[in-house]
């Protein structure tokens, strides 16, 4: 098993970042604990913090979280202008998974974050341009992703940015990364999309920091080839999975026969009591605007017994009101439903499929003959069909990066060509606010 740390290649070539970019610094944020960002790494030279990094693969063997680097792999196309700015360090000892040490997931090639989406940068770097972090505290700051054109324009005098870079930061400055944070992670929803690379000063107004774009195919493919990372769960075409893969999945049954899907959305510490994952329904809350016409298609079921958190039963997070997923982003649908329009799931196996979010205009057009869709709905599926959800999956979750954005609602047959599945849009304020008011989450 390979045990690896991902960092900036610029740091391999120069001991001081200021030798390359005299004004490069990183700053801002609040103090956090390592438990908040357990993938964070501090690389030391002669016992002193040198730069940041992140754990991307490890084996569960040794105790502690300190290890020595034995190999360093620099991207073959790296240049001193900051392009292809990535390196992988192999550690001498295997790291122990615990609350202070966890690997971070990486995006698929070309999997991007929407503009203005907030992302979390963390590190042990300076607190300002000439303010060192003498206490060595770990800090973090949330910064928004910038549109690539704006980023290129900002650094036009330095040659702009390449397709292997992107920017994140506030136009007014005051928050960002600083010297000593270089090589560290930029994360959203448990996935590392960026590596702190270069910029102009620390949190400087009008000059956002520049990050290595991990999802860029030349970067992501090199990581995969170099580290032999195991592919993350990407189930396509309705493959069989286990409940441990989607522990939030629910099968609602009548007389022991599967009726429809669902998801666990709320459990508190006081709820963690009974053994097992089977229980009976005690009450049902239906959205007050639901009129059996597909709109406002959401309900909440109260359970008779409290559920036990374990590897087979976990709640799923919900998005904030109006928090959306980009068009074409892949999302995971799961359920115990039929395998096709006239093909029942006689074995009762749990299956999952990844489907892309469809633009609302295209979705409305597809179902124009049915009156289109409302603001409480969205579509996900492939134009060519053949992959999607079916009868019996209704009510089940549609998830991306650990957040449930959709509820399987309706559609035209099962994964029909030109007819993507229609899902209840959980982030729609009338839906999300009702959930919050009903169960206080």
Automatic annotation (TrEMBL):
It comes from the Eukaryota. Coiled coil: none annotated. PROSITE patterns: TRYPSIN_DOM, TRYPSIN_SER. GO terms for biological process: digestion; proteolysis. InterPro entries: Peptidase_S1 (IPR050430), Peptidase_S1_PA (IPR009003), Peptidase_S1_PA_chymotrypsin (IPR043504), Trypsin_dom (IPR001254), TRYPSIN_SER (IPR033116). It holds the Pfam family Trypsin. Keywords: Digestion, Disulfide bond, Hydrolase, Protease, Serine protease, Zymogen. Residues 26-440 form the Peptidase S1 domain. GO terms for molecular function: serine-type endopeptidase activity. SMART domains: Tryp_SPc. Belongs to the peptidase S1 family. CLIP subfamily. This is Peptidase S1 domain-containing protein.
């Amino acid at each position: 098993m390979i045990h690896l740390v991902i960092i900036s290649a610029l740091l391999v070539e120069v001991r001081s970042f200021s030798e390359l970019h005299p004004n490069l610094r990183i700053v801002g944020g609040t103090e956090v604990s390592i438990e908040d960002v357990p993938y964070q790494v501090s690389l030391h030279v002669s016992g002193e913090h040198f730069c940041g990094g992140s754990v991307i693969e490890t084996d569960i063997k040794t105790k502690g979280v300190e290890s020595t680097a034995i190999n360093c792999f620099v991207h073959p196309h790296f240049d001193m202008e900051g392009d292809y700015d990535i390196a992988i360090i192999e550690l001498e000892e295997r790291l122990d998974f615990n609350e202070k040490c966890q690997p971070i997931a990486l995006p698929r090639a070309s999997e991007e974050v929407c503009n203005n989406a907030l992302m979390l940068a963390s590190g042990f770097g300076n607190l300002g341009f000439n303010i060192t972090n003498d206490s060595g505290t770990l800090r973090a700051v949330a910064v928004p992703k910038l549109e690539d054109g704006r980023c290129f324009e900002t650094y036009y005098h330095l040659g702009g940015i390449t397709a292997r870079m992107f920017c994140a930061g506030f136009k007014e400055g005051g928050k960002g990364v600083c010297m000593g944070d270089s090589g560290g992670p930029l994360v959203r929803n448990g996935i590392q999309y960026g590596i702190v690379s270069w910029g102009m000063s620390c949190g400087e107004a009008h000059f956002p920091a520049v990050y290595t774009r991990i999802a860029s195919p030349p970067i992501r493919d090199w990581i995969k080839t170099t580290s032999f990372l195991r592919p993350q769960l990407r189930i396509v075409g309705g493959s069989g999975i286990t409940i441990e893969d989607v522990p939030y999945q629910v099968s609602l049954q009548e007389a022991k026969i599967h009726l429809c899907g669902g998801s666990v959305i709320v459990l508190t510490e006081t709820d963690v009591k009974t053994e097992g994952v089977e229980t009976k329904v005690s009450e049902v809350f239906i959205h007050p605007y639901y009129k059996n016409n597909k709109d406002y298609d959401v309900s909440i079921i109260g359970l008779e017994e409290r559920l036990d958190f374990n590897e087979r039963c976990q709640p799923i997070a919900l998005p904030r009101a109006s928090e959306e997923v980009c068009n074409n982003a892949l999302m995971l649908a799961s359920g115990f439903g039929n395998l096709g329009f006239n093909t029942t799931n006689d074995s009762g196996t749990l299956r999952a499929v990844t489907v892309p979010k469809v633009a609302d205009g295209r979705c409305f057009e597809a179902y124009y003959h049915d009156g289109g869709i409302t603001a409480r709905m969205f579509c996900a599926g492939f134009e060519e069909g053949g992959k999607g959800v079916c009868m019996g999956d209704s009510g089940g979750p549609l998830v991306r990066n650990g957040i449930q954005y959709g509820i399987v609602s309706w559609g035209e047959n099962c994964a029909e060509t030109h007819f993507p599945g229609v899902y209840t849009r959980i982030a729609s304020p009338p839906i999300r606010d009702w959930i919050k008011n009903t169960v206080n989450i």
